[in-house]
Amino acid sequence: MGLTDLGKCGTCDNSYILLREMKDMFTQLEEINSRPEPFAFYTAADLWTDEHTSEQMLAYHLNSDIDVSSRRGEFIDRSVDWIASRFSIGTDTQIADFGCGPGLYANRLAKVGASVTGIDFSKRSIGHAREVAAEAGLNIEYVNQNYLDFETENRFDLILMIMCDFCALGPSQRRIMLAKFHSLLLPGGSVLLDVYSLNAFKQRDEASSYGVNLLDGFWSREKYHGFLNIFKYDDAKVVLDKYTIVESARTRTIYNWLQYFTPESLWREFEEAGFTQQELYADVAGTPFDETASEFAVVAQKK
Q1: CA proximity to 104, closest of 259, 255, 284
Q2: Is the pLDDT of residue 69 over 70?
Q3: Is the dihedral of CA 56, 62, 64, 70 positive or negative?
Q4: Which domains are seen in the chain, by residue range?
Q5: What pLDDT digit, counting tens, does each position of 273-287 carry?
């Protein structure tokens, strides 16, 4: 068969198509396993506003026996008791809970008399929080919004950001949040938040994995192929859990970034935003600071 006959060969056509498809698959796998620059992508909406994943996250929130989306119920009770004591929470106290989820902190703080505003990206979580608050007659305003965009004329005595939410934000987003916190606080008001430490960073390793319906169907009700790539950025002290979810009708990539801090690096960011009087704790329940722990909490006051 001569060269002029190649175009007439059905077997040759099939081989060409197969080679092209294999090349496309190779390119897709290269992209799946590619390492982006730290915080190059922000995909929070894919986690918190997707109908299926938001349902999964709410179930994790409401399981008081695990530390996944929220702390265990026993810890939250202890934490709220400490917050109420440390910040002298009373009927005149104005609190904003950024990333409030289904209101596990906000509802408890309202029960001790505070006027609470809760802000969260998840419509499903906010809906649950509103139902619980209404049934209990609690004084809480729940706002369904990305907290990076939240604005209000109200001013607060205390701002909370709990469950290491601050770590999921890139440097520019953290500057936005701290500036927002500063502007929303009353004079002498405080921020309480927790973060992951460098001890936790040292425990993370790079890895890659694949599974059908990865994480037991967390990402979709339909069958999917899930790829997880964990990238570690030693200089930036950042870890990325990169999930690529391949369904029959679409492919999604979710970037779960985590920034790890030392007390010094965290305090520099607060100080640049105009805060003073730092206090360090091991957690948001007031446990004494432990330099060997995987997390720590900070209280910073507005100048």
Answers
A1: 284
A2: no
A3: positive
A4: 9-43+201-258 (no CATH), 69-195+261-302 (3.40.50.150)
A5: 999 878 999 999 999
Within 13 Å and on the Cβ side, how many CA atoms surround 106?
Answer: 35
Task: Report the pLDDT value the prediction gives residue 4, as an integer from 0 to 100.
Answer: 47
Q: What is the mean pLDDT of residues 142-167?
A: 97
Average pLDDT of the chain is 91
DSSP for the chain reads --GGGGGG-HHHHHHHHHHHHHHHHHHHHHHHT--PPTT----HHHHHTSHHHHHHHHHHHH-TT--SSS--HHHHHHHHHHHHHHTT--TT-EEEEET-TTTHHHHHHHHTT-EEEEEES-HHHHHHHHHHHHHHT--EEEEES-GGG---S--EEEEEE-SSGGGGS-HHHHHHHHHHHHHHEEEEEEEEEEEEEHHHHHT---EEEEEETHHHHTS-SS--EEEEEEEEETTTTEEEEEEEEE-SS-EEEEEEEEEEE-HHHHHHHHHHTTEEEEEEESSTT-PBP-TTSSEEEEEEEE-
* 233 band by pLDDT with thresholds 50, 70 and 90: very high
